[in-house]
User: Which sequence fits this backbone?
């Protein structure tokens, strides 16, 4: 079968590999992969900038497909032929965070395509309890968007965002934009901050009323205006840029919350006296846990227009070329998904 194979950094191609074999009674299901999304972490693996990725590596963790084989007594009552998305964060189930249900930050977390081989393959073996059924009429190219949406939702959930709150979002990539759309579905008021004017214009066309284009516009001044002086009750830091992380402390209101979702490349020094003065809750936000059902429901009901972040649909054979292009021109597309024929 075919796999999207990253032999080493900057060397990606379609490779013929052995189809995995299903063995009954092991809690693993065999999935025929139908669609896959290319994520920023796949690009990071391609560039060789993520120290936790080892090579060679099959990439891909945004996956949807059809169950080909599954144990009869599987925990979710799924059957052969069911359409599913795959929760890609393999966790131990025994450590402290797992015992709290916070499997997204398991001490020995293995994310598909990062710590272990991913699912950009024609067939994939995956734990049966980590399959989530998708609506029958959801198009294949849309289903993998549920994964980045869970990341956005996780940020909103960490901050317990509620209606009427201002949510300042650093970064108008797919995750930031989905977070803004999801925030609106909660009745909250997103404010997106990004350096790319076209992206912000696109966000406004999707109904995001407040956008701030940096460095030309003064983000603190604008947020003060929009919030009548209070500043944002919630800041979602989804860019990973050191300056944006630092500025989150100024963007946030007194008694506000900051969720750090973006991955910074280096250490950021922070004036922690601001955290104390404003009594800010600074929260980490990593992956997602039990958030796929909600993501799929928001997409299906149209409450979140996930299709809006899908820039292009390609075939699996075109994935290596698309990864190269996304690496060379990161601003060109929001999200590219591929269909397996
Ligand atoms: Zn992803
Ligand atoms: Zn664990």
Assistant:
């Amino acid at each position: 079968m075919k796999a999207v194979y990253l032999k080493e950094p900057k060397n990606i191609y379609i490779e013929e590999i052995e189809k995995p074999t299903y063995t009954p009674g092991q809690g693993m299901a065999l999935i025929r992969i139908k669609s896959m999304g290319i994520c920023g972490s796949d690009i990071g693996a391609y560039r060789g900038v993520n120290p936790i990725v080892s090579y060679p590596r099959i990439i891909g963790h945004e996956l949807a497909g059809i169950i080909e084989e599954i144990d009869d007594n599987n925990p979710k009552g799924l059957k052969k032929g069911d359409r599913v998305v795959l929760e890609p964060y393999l966790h131990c189930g025994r450590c402290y965070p797992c015992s709290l249900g916070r499997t997204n930050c398991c001490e020995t977390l293995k994310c598909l395509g990062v710590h272990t081989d991913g699912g950009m393959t024609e067939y994939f073996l995956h734990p049966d309890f980590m399959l989530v059924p998708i609506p029958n009429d959801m198009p294949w190219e849309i289903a993998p968007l549920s994964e980045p949406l869970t990341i956005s939702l996780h940020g909103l959930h960490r901050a317990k965002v509620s209606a009427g709150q201002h949510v300042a979002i650093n970064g108008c990539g797919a995750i930031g934009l989905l977070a803004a759309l999801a925030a609106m579905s909660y009745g909250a008021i997103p404010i997106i901050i990004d350096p790319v004017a076209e992206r912000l214009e696109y966000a406004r066309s999707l109904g995001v009323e407040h956008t701030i284009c940096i460095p030309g516009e003064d983000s603190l001044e604008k947020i003060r205006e929009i919030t009548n002086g209070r500043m944002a009750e919630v800041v979602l830091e989804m860019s990973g840029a050191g300056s944006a992380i630092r500025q989150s402390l100024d963007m946030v209101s007194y008694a506000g919350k900051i969720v750090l979702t973006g991955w910074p490349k280096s250490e950021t020094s922070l004036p922690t006296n601001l955290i104390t003065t404003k009594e800010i809750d600074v929260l980490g936000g990593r992956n997602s846990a039990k958030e796929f059902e909600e993501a799929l429901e928001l997409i299906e009901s149209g409450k979140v227009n996930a299709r809006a972040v899908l820039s292009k649909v390609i075939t699996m054979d075109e994935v290596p070329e698309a990864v190269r292009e996304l690496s060379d021109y990161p601003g060109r597309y929001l999200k590219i998904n591929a269909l397996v024929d």
Summary: Residues 39, 41, 61-62, 147-148 surround zinc ion (ligand 1) (CB under 6 Å).
